[in-house]
Design brief:
single chain; about 210 residues; alpha/beta; Rossmann fold; 5-stranded parallel beta sheet; 5 strands; about 55% helix; about 15% strand; globular
Length: about 210
């Protein structure tokens, strides 16, 4: 596969969407063929699963069911979009991927990380990002930024979301070559983007 797979991770309110849009614009200006997708979602089947996962009314959903639904949505996106796009040589910018399941369901819910990784390998055909940008934000501030209309995951406790943040930072320490931590607290969007752009440029240059 000749393309490049770049993922963006971070807790609620970390500003991922804004930075992904800026990255898309920047890379297109550089002449790259860019595809932006989100998780869970991105295709019809996965968007249907997304609605189930994020609906606050689904209070009875168990942790195991949650993991499997995320993986099902991911598997469809990989088969339908990610693999063909990589084969076509495109740069994919993906809002969340397997790291999200590891931290939200693994660190957040206390589920076995190796089990999640095993299911993840099956669902993703072992596709792994070339680069992951992790936007790190104070947990309480991130939830404040997320607003009042919170989905099923956002409605969870501050303690849960604190475990998610620490989970992300743990993964970053384990894989520093892939996961680049970008602190967002008290910083301007342009300054954040300049740091992100540096990571993008460096990784693309490495692939040439």
């Amino acid at each position: 596969m000749s393309g490049m797979f770049i993922t963006f991770e971070g807790a609620e309110g970390s500003g991922k969407s804004t930075q992904i849009a800026r990255c898309e614009q920047y890379l297109k200006q550089q002449g790259h063929d860019v595809l932006v997708i989100r998780e869970p979602g991105g295709v019809k089947i996965s968007e249907t699963v997304r609605a189930i996962l994020l609906d606050p009314a689904n209070t009875e959903m168990g942790a195991e069911c949650e993991v499997l639904l995320y993986m099902a949505a991911r598997a469809q996106l990989v088969r339908e979009v990610i693999l063909p796009a990589l084969d076509a040589g495109r740069i994919i910018l993906c809002d969340r991927f397997l790291d999200s399941t590891l931290v939200y369901q693994g660190f957040g819910h206390g589920m076995d990380l190796e089990q999640i990784r095993g299911i993840g390998d099956f669902a993703t055909c072992k596709i792994a990002p070339s680069l992951t940008i992790l936007f790190d934000i104070d947990t309480a501030e991130g939830l404040r930024r997320a607003g009042d209309q919170k989905d099923r995951i956002e409605q969870r406790s501050l303690e849960y979301h604190s475990r998610v943040r620490q989970g992300y930072l743990t993964l970053a320490r384990q894989e520093p070559q892939r996961i680049k931590v970008v602190g967002v607290d008290g910083r301007k969007k342009e300054d954040i983007f300049q740091e992100v752009r540096g990571y993008l440029d460096a990784r693309i240059q490495e692939r040439r």
